[in-house]
Amino acid sequence: MNPNKRYQLLERWARETLDSSQIEIYPINSDASFRNYFRVSDHSDNTYIIMDSPPDKENNQQFILISEILTKMEIPSTVVYAKDLSMGFFILSDLGPSTLLDHNLEIRIKTKRQEHYTEAINILFLIQKNGNTFVDQLPVYDLELLETEMNLFLDWYCIKELGMNAAQLNEFNLENCFKYLSESALKQAQVFNHRDYHSRNIMISKQGELGIIDFQDAVLGPITYDLVSLLRDCYIELSENEIRHWLEVVHQRLINEDLIDISYEKFEVDFDLMGCQRHLKAIGIFSRLKHRDGKLNYMKDVPRTLGYLNKVSKKYDVLEPLQNFINSTYLQ
Hints:
This protein is of the alpha+beta class. It has two domains: 3-93, Phosphorylase Kinase, domain 1 (2-Layer Sandwich), CATH 3.30.200.20; 98-329, Alpha-Beta Complex (Aminoglycoside 3'-phosphotransferase, Chain: A, domain 2), CATH 3.90.1200. Helices cover 51% and strands 13% of the residues. It has twelve helices and ten strands. The strands form three sheets. It has a five-stranded antiparallel β-sheet, with helices on both faces. Strands 6-8-9 form a three-stranded antiparallel β-sheet. Strands 7-10 form a two-stranded antiparallel sheet. The termini are far apart.
């Protein structure tokens, strides 16, 4: 459908659904998917988010399911007020005008940053703890999915972005690294995973309250996955001191709640290796967004994400092939 025609239908539906001809609709940032978002205010100064989520490209039923589960878990997150599933139109709660990333970039006040991350980790802990009741409704983050995600790195970054061929890639033997990372992930405690828990998906209201968006890809997966998404964020880098502090806090909390029974040292290893899997996937997705979808902006985050891979791969002998790859392609 012509984008202008689709927007006209969306606008008409929103006016009819909100029962007002006085609403004002403003486009806001889209995400890395095929969805588009708009903020709408009505005559009572209430604000909502309109989501245009084409049903032929997005799993809207899963979005609704996870939204309902998070509400039952009392997680501050997007609520669906109205929907037209045939068109993929939604009216959602407005969780705030800015993201945790915005606050990190604009407000470099240590106490405020600590407050935000304390709350983000509190919310994550509730997702993991309360989510146990609902994990049977989630897809499983299995070996096939873990490896498929890392193969995005090969297909879209190595081949499309760097112009490498299969013979060149085979010299690095990255597949053995990928297999090790997948097996490590599956050995961790498995919990409710948001699966994209980072600073761009944590909203902050005008009152300073946090809320969670972009949760439709939730799975039953490794307990360090969301934590590494937050602390080794592809969009902003925390200091190593900050990361270690939060790792220690979370480890002790998970021990106290009987969600894990491993040493801090093992927890850190799991965290590191999980981060490698996620960052390989992210670089592949950023490259796909550029080459398939024409969204070039995400490539600016590749150096930071490769930097995480470089730092971690130096720590583990089993990741030597990955370190060799980075040395040969990125650090030249």
